[in-house]
Amino acid sequence: MANRLSQIATRTGDDGTTGLGDNTRVSKNHLRVMAMGDVDELNSNIGVLLAEPLPDEVRELLITIQHELFNLGGELCMPGYELLKLDAVLGLDEALAHFNANLPRLKEFILPAGTRSAAIAHVCRTVARRAERAVVTLNASEPINDALRHYLNRLSDLLFVLARVLNRANLDGLGGDDVYWHSERLKRQEAD
């Protein structure tokens, strides 16, 4: 494992390369670096979500997720090293079951809207999907731990569910329910 950074502006990346955790240098447009960047962006967006008013159990879960995403990014940074454990994926499955249990069935597709915290959760969900695509793309050229893919897939599902939970929590007084897409089918059903 590489040394921890004690200096941020090293200037070693000025040539368009970056160092991985195993001390190899790769181009900044390498598939591994792209996946690392998407995971970092996801973690940063979760940090923005954590700056919002949240139910305590959602806050605690998101803090745990941030640490797990750091492990996931670390694993991407160190080829052949395993940091993210299957328990992390199972934890997301448990959280999905817990938070989904009290939500009403969806009547239609929902829009990424509602309260500010719900909208930010939807942004996190879309970044999680992009990170998942980047990991899948990397895996097509280099073998990686399956848990990375599974984790990002479950996390995007969980963030969708949490957006619905946050709309109902209504901590900013601007939400209260899902924001449904008004399709022609829904319009016909409402007219009957």
TrEMBL record:
Residues 1-24 are annotated as: Disordered. InterPro entries: CblAdoTrfase-like, CblAdoTrfase-like_sf, PduO-typ. Gene3D superfamilies: Cobalamin adenosyltransferase-like. It is an enzyme of class 2 (transferase). Keywords: ATP-binding, Cobalamin biosynthesis, Nucleotide-binding, Transferase. Residues 8-165 form the Cobalamin adenosyltransferase-like domain. One of its GO terms (biological process) is cobalamin biosynthetic process. GO terms for molecular function: ATP binding; corrinoid adenosyltransferase activity. It catalyses: 2 cob(II)alamin + AH2 + 2 ATP = 2 adenosylcob(III)alamin + 2 triphosphate + A + 2 H(+). Pfam families: Cob_adeno_trans (PF01923). Its EC number is 2.5.1.-. Homotrimer. Belongs to the Cob(I)alamin adenosyltransferase family. This is Cobalamin adenosyltransferase.
